[in-house]
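Contributing: when you submit paired examples, paste them exactly as shown. First protein:
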Amino acid sequence: MRGKSLFPDLTHRRREPEWMDAADADPDELKRSLRFIRRINALFGYTRQTISHLEQFSRRWRSQERITIVDFATGSADVPHAILRWASRRGFDVRIVGLDLHPATASIALATKTNPLLSIVCASAMAAPFAAGSFDYALTSMFLHHLDEDDAVRVLREMNRVARRGIIASDLLRDRRAYGWISLFTLAAGPMVRHDARVSVAQAFAQDEVLDLRDRADIGFAQFHCHFGHRFALAGER
């Protein structure tokens, strides 16, 4: 019964595969899961938190400058779409590549792509098919908690490698209250959403673990920021 408690002991990460990551994930359940993530990101301002860091960076952008961004593990590409809407309102020339390894997820992102300034690439975030310094910025959201510590460091290093100017890596913070809240919030959701939501919180990183990942990835310029809803961002420019 311990694993089903609304407030389990989360002193340490509790690793478990998320169903949406499976190669044979049910397509309908996967779509529902991605739709849930989009709704949560919008409802609680998580996407806006990423954009708030870009707002800070944009103070140093030159007039008429083209800004290129790569979004690691883009999912259904809701974050890139939101960034492009923000950039359009602000008059910024932004182009984004969304990268995702899961073929079905990349196909969903491609099928729902509504902006020609966004491209979707199916490839691994741990071996991004881009030359060093190919983009101004590298982003990732809600991805690191899917990984073990070594792979999370590899992703952060890859982001640092392909980004000339800076990175933003945001995700959940492991927290018992967040686990209880998400368990209640997803009671009426589909089985994949209910399972993956709890697993996501249980295997998220704590603040000291995030800082250790940052140091191991040699991205000390990225500052740790706490955000509403038990979220964090590592964000910074060189």
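Second protein:
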Amino acid sequence: MNNLHTTLRIVMCDANREELERYKKICQEICEAASVKAVINAFSDSQALLFEMNDQAFSSRVRLMIIDPDGGCEAAASRLRKEGYGGVILYLSRSTKKEYYQQAFNANALNYVEKGDMKRFAEVFKEALRAARQLDSQHIMVSNAGEYRQIYIHDIYYFETTTNHMVCVWHAEGKFTFQSSLFYLENRLREHGFFRAHRSYLIALDAVRRISYDEVTLSNGRSIPLARGAYAMLKRIMADGGSLSRIVI
């Protein structure tokens, strides 16, 4: 099933190929030690990186970028930020040029690490990993027939089964149909506040506005049927979560 991506994608750009491979190996070792499943794409040419980032399927999945500004790679970070890239950026370089520090600041980089200080790099990279994983936990990536959507979990109202192995997600910016199952989504999103209201519906608890014995009304105005026995369970969950004051029974 290629629609909900859980692997962390990391991009590195460094004109020095030898150092690029050295730090890529270090990053891989840190990820393995932290039990983080990651794919690291390394580029020694910023133009090659920018070309790849034009591909929505690639760019929308990148959560962490490690950039050495020497050799023109700083252009990639600044351009991608201007185009709306919301992932983590980390600068890694032997250069101490003030303009590079300014560029890191302008690109809202997490940090600037000088090469050679392996202890500090390891500490900062672990911090970057945590930030990237936190970012990844806040949204889902879904796809269908080569079309991709990055949808923030807090923007989702509900998921609805449409046909066999197809699910429609209704969210703040519209809807999108993709290949999946409610069983898979329920297990993936349970800790993010989603409830199986019906065999065909998975709803966001934050979107609940009114509960009756046979249906629940969401904040987008849609009424979702409640399965037999789901009313009492949903009412108890909302009460335990401290959100009952928003609910009219």
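If you have annotations for the second protein, write them as plain sentences, like these:
The domain at 151-246 is CATH 2.40.50.1020 (OB fold (Dihydrolipoamide Acetyltransferase, E2P)).
The radius of gyration is 22 Å.
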